[in-house]
Structure formats: structure tokens, C-alpha cells
Amino acid sequence: MTDTASGGGAIARLNPVLRQVRAGNGFEEALEQILQVVRLGLVPGGERLPPERELAERMGISRVTLREVLKVLQDQGLVEARRGRYGGTFVLPRPDTPAGGTEEELRRRVAGVDIEDALRFREVLEVGAAGLCASQGLAEADAERLLAALAATHDAPLADYRRRDTLFHLTLCELAGSASLTAQYAAVRATVNDLLDCIPLLVRNLEHSQQQHTSLVESVLERDAAGARETMREHCCGTAALLRGFLA
To answer: What is the pTM of this model?
Structure first.
């Protein structure tokens, strides 16, 4: 049984996205949050979502409302319900998209997305988070979390790189200590990931990204706020350049 299926630790992995919903929009806000969990790869394809009871308690909704949310996701082909001792709601693997997909697929994904707005907002949030983490310093346990997230990107097989890269950036934002910042970043990152899925993985770019990740973590741990902000700004600009080149 995977950690995702095993309970308490699984729900903790989703903390960057899951939060108490506001009264009056329980269904809509819960649907948004679970969609972000799936789109960000916080629960990989083939793995099980945490138990309904834990998800409902975390978001402050009834299990009836949660089941309505899961039914929508099932109708959209994003999850499936399985019965039996090891049953539950499982995230379905996303179908592979060829490098960039078809022209029709590209137009569908990019249509309605203000690419410049998403990229600028992402940069503002991430540069700010990097500076906060460095200036306020990280407790030992938080520093270990960041180092573990960095190590996971270094060890990632190519097919899983973007998911682990997302988790690294989400971890950094969460460690900044602002739930609002983390929630906003999770939303914009889901949009950026949809765009990244439209372009090929370039080994040279990934190697450069990893160097920047390492430099970023070093600056954070050394409490070099200016260095952390500048490294993150360069990192975001590199991703933005690729997306503009392929999609603009």
C-alpha cells in the first residue's frame, strides 16, 4: 500500500491546496481544490485519494457534497471508484500528449489563457516566497523538507519530472508561511502546468533548472534573501521564455 493510500500522511501531502471552504460555495470550492490536487500531480496517476472522511473534514464539507464532487471528476475521466478491501477513489493516469500535441490540442489548451498574466503572477509569488523563506530562515525540519523535495527532483525519471518539480515549488511556497500565498500559487501553477504539458521536455533545460534549484536552496539555507530572489527570478524567466517560444 502506498503512502497516499495509508491515511494521515497522505492528507498532509495535500495541505498546500486543501483548505476549509467558505459557507455557500462548498461544492464549487471543493471541486476547485480537488481538481488542483489532480492537475498538480499531488496524487499521481494510479494512486488513491485519501479517505472520504479525511478529505471532507479537511475542507469542512459533508461527505455527501464530497461524493458529488468526486462524481463530477469521475464523469470527466479524471478519477475512478474501485470497490473492495483496497478500494477507494483512484486518480487516472493522464493520457500522454506528444511533444506539443496536435495543433488543435495546442489551440484548445492555450485558448482563453492569458499566458503573460499567468507567468508574471507566478514570478511575483515565487520570487516573494523565496525571499521570505530566506529572510526569516527555516527551522531544521522545514530545511529537511526543502532538501528532500530538491533531492526528489534530482532522482526523478523523465516522465515524473514535472510532477516532482511542482512539489518542490509548492513546498517552497508553503514554507514561506502564508496560506494565501500558497493557495494562489497552487492555482497559477496548475495553469502553468497545463501550458508546460504542451511543450517537450528538454534535457538541457532540465539540467539548467536543476542547477538553479540547487543554488536557490543554498541561498535560502544561507539566509541570502537577495540571492534567493534573483535565482528564482531567473528560473521563472527561463520557463517563461520556453513557453513564449513554443506557444506565443
So the answer is: 0.76
Closest CA to 164 of 48, 13, 50, 34: 13
Residues of the chain with pLDDT > 90, as a percent, come to 57
In whole angstroms, give the CA distance from residue 136 to residue 115: 32
b/e for 69-95, b at 16 or more Cβ within 10 A?
Answer: bbeebeeeebbeeeeeeeebbbbeeee
Q: Which residue has the cell 534573483?
A: 230
Residue 82: phi and psi, rounded to 5, are -125, 140
Percent residues over pLDDT 70 in the chain = 90
Looking at residue 28, its amino acid is E
Do 189 and 183 touch, CB atoms closer than 8 A? no
Nearest to 236 by CA among 130, 149, 163: 130
User: What is the chain's percent helix, strand, coil content, to nearest 5?
Assistant: 65, 5, 30
Tell me if 217 sits within 8 A of 150, measured CB to CB. Answer: yes
